[in-house]
Amino acid sequence: MKAKKILILNFFLITQNLIYGQCTGCTSTITSNTSTGIIVSSGQTVCIAPSIVINGGIIINSGGTLCNEGIINSGIEIQGGGELNNYGEIDASGIENRGIFNNYKSVNGLNVFNMDTLNNWGQINIKGFSVITNGYLNNTSSGKILVRGGFSLGDTLYPGKVDNYGCMEVEDGFSIFHTNSVFYTETMITVGGGWSNSGTVNGSTVSCGGFKVAQGTSNLGIYGVTGKLDMCDTGNPTSGFDSQSGTVGTNVTYCFCQNYCAISGINNSDQYQNQISLYPNPAGEFISIQFDKVITENGSIEIINILGQNVYTEKLPKGTKTEINIESIPAGVYFIKFNTNDKNQAQKFIKE
Fold this sequence. Notes:
The protein has one helix at 269-272; strands at 6-8, 28-30, 37-40, 45-48, 53-54, 58-60, 65-68, 71-72, 76-78, 83-86, 89-92, 95-97, 100-103, 106-114, 117-120, 123-131, 136-139, 144-147, 151-153, 161-164, 167-170, 174-176, 182-185, 188-191, 195-197, 200-203, 209-213, 217-219, 222-223, 229-233, 243-244, 247-248, 276-279, 286-295, 299-305, 310-315, 319-325, 332-340, 343-351. The chain is mainly β. The longest helix is centred in the C-terminal third of the chain and has 4 residues, at 269-272.
């Protein structure tokens, strides 16, 4: 970012020591819209007034605090020791957090990379979410998180930690990396893609939680040794998981827990995507597909094997029901993908 486009807030003191709503202790307050980049320096508490629109990139340095009650439409970088308190709206191209990020209202955008602490009391609607490099995510009982793409916890070098007390939905894959990563949940989390665990997943001793997974499940770590956990693999594998080489607690249930938490008000995919039923499942010569809404868009149907190889493709027919001849497909586990415009859904079935 060029220096002339960076707004050093020591020289942008619009209003000194004012309090706007929930932002307190402000050393400076931004009270007019700007497209210029913002740097928050150590010792500053910069506040963005309600309804003010920020279109320039934001960097929060160590020892600096940004309190937002306005609208941020740009990328945000929170350095180690920096802090962001959001009481307004954030629509970010990306958020990289190495400090403390407290969200009390609304975050939308492409990707969040959390490498320190993110506390969520509000709503997060994001394309991709990664909790890495010893990062910590605390989704409180009032928090709602919709991940429109994939979610990952930990990486090959460092673990991460998640405590989920609220609502969470992941539309694509869900992965827990690193053996020291820990994921705790008190509610059921729906996962639209595959699910894998190499760490530890714990539940509450009071209420049940767990995962409902549309595609493959693989447990290489520890699942449900502590607390009440459920695993609902919609393909109904015999062992509860498609692949199980880890440790599963004796109290784990399968498709029993109904402690789901509806994500309302933040573009929940269930409001926009068709609900799909496959039958019979397992299937023999034919498999029928039932949609709860009439298909009017152009699209395609694909059948994918467990190696990720496409074994069948056809145009998505209009209407609410179709049937596919799968007689020539070898016996095994498959996924049917439905692609329309920028949306895609998948369901697992077994070919006998």
